[in-house]
Model the fold of this input.
Amino acid sequence: MPTKRPRRTVDLIDRRVGLLFGLFVLLLAVAVGRALYLGTLRSGALRADANTEHVDKVAIPAVRGEITDRDGAVLALSESVDSVIADPHLIKHPERDAAILAPLLGESTRQTLAGLTKKGTGYVVLNNRVPAATAAKIMTKVTDLNIDGITDVASEHRVYPRGTEAAQVLGWVGSSGGVWGIEEQLNHDLAGTSGTRQIVKDALGQAIQVKTTKPMVPGKTVKLTLSAPLQSEVEKVLAGVGSEFKPESATAIVTDPQTDQILALANWPSVNANNVSASDLKPVDGHLPAAEDQAVDFSYEPGSTFKAITVGGALQDGVVTPSTVFDIPPYLESYGHRINDAEPHGYEELTVAGILKFSSNIGADLIGQKLGPARFGYWVNRFGFGKPTGVALPGEQRGIVLPVDKYSGPSMYNLPFGQGESVTPMQMVQAYDAIADGGVLRTPQIVDSIGGKTVSEPKGKRIISTNVAWELRKMLRGVLTDGGTASGAAIPGYDIAGKTGTAQVVVDGKYSTTDFVASFIGMVPASNPKLVVAVVVNDPRNGVIYGGSVAAPAFQKIVGWAVPYFGINPCPGVCPASAKNPAVPSTP
Amino acid sequence: MLGVLLLGIVGMRVEVLKLGSSVGSEMQQASLLQSTNAELQNQVSALSTNQRIEQLASRQGMVMPGPLDVHFVHASGAANVSEAIADISEPSPSAFLDGVVSERAQDGQTAVTAATTSAIGVLGGGSISSNPTSSSTSGSSGTAGTSGTTAQTTTTSAAQSSNGTVATQGATSSPPGSTASSTSDTAAATDNVTAATSTESNGAASLGG
Done:
């Protein structure tokens, strides 16, 4: 039989249980209340605190696209770098910290200490080009040694591994993106889009969750049509021109006329895109010779190289043939001015081919007069002068070409031999490319592909017949034969055609007798050109001024290197007599 | 049961955190590698510049073929094809090994000759030695290839010492698609060695060095 507990004892136990229950309920209520308070009323502030302490929002800078040559050699790329920043207010042991950080930052301890102890600021950039791997080491050290007040911010640094090579073509990058050249022209494609990443860290600072809140889109790789080895060689040749003739500036362009792709485009003086100094951006006569791409940014009167255009139009219109003979007087009177040839002569007869070979200004004028102003103006436009070529390079000038109705009396005495109109080297190359490519004019191409997508080949338009183009090339061969204005530029066994130009520069409204632009544009092999090379030298200063003496030798060196390099047969088929002549020094 | 479930949830949570942590470090590693890759690309591009390669090559006694050193010979269609077919013989391992041995011996001799020439150049100067040797290919890529009926022959690479001594070294190469037979190539190469040696001074004169 169970013994009965006394009634009083049971009541006491029940009461205690009830008390405990009540206590628990109370505690639960407090906990719930606290939870509600923290989860609702304080939630915003607590979330903000947690985010500050444990969540980092990191910007992911967009990696700028590479620029490569036609064979993939990298001409421009971006390296990830970090800026290491100090808050001097939070630095407790500046001497110790400076000694630890300085070697990693690549700075002197004194310099780092100066940064860490700088007064009146909470933001000191200790180094803004620390390689990402080194920055990671620094931050590990900072965490391990509990150094407060040191942070790093990722950024990128544009590098041009080949320094001066094609610098004016590539351009460079400023704080707002590309500022010159391809960097500027294709900034939208190269730049990409920066992203953001959220990193949740534990109490020890270790990342426990990484979330990409906005994906970074890297810039596209831009592949140019340039050939880096040829570019290097052309720059070497131009540097030689620079040191020998001390010009104000010089430019050289090499193209494949069959595609109008630019294989090399060099400028002198050169500039190192990795370190553009203030002197590089110093204007000379309103120009920036070191920074500007002279191939598109330099307008000049082309001089005798333009005679090929006059003759081309006249041939196409059928007003002359290569063997048409002209009576060339010693000079022409033009409204009070005398038009002379470079070398004095008496009355003589020259064929059209001879006019080109000996570069007769008077002969070109007579052909121009036979053509007439209207047709001459038509051919100038037809060959692409007076408007930008459309090449994908910024700052392209359009040149100055008078409309026919604005021609004055003397116009047809100047324009046919390349005086009075203003062109860019790129326009001249485009026109000679057309002559080389059987009469088809195309926009020169410098961008091969963007982001792996091939840029479509520019459509061409026929401006002269294949036959006229061939006749022109045959006549231009004569320029490099004995007695021609560029005979010294010939290479035995090379079938070369080309034209010299020596143009006076207008200074204070008059043609200068001391300032000239010397140029040479040629092609090889003339029977089926694979290369067109133009060399334009602005204001050569050592007393030699003629295109045949200043620019043609540079052409010769470029061709002499490029033809074996590309494996071009310099004289396919039956070599013409002009290619067999040994070169003799030219008579300008 | 509840305890097991709780333990499971906690365990899963820990694994998720571990995973997040490893993802974070992997991403850091990836960006570090990308950065290193960019640095290396920079170095590769800087190291492969023409000027540097030319300097290194010139130290080894090499120069770029001059404008007159590359020759194209005409392949005369069927005649060359039948000549090439006639030259085809069954491969012989012993002949191959003999060839390797003689080639090595020739290489050694070339090095000795080059050293001797250099020494002669330093002492005397003005002498020319010609020594056609093994084949090499002239690097070419790009816009304009050779026509299908011609063979390209690189003949001379001249190493010129400071006092004017010239050593010539014959080398032949045929681009892909060449239809010239090996016999005609060899013959052409021999001709071209002579031609290049004889025309070299002209070329140098026309280019002003």
Observations:
- Chain A touches chain B through 67 residues (CB under 8 Å).
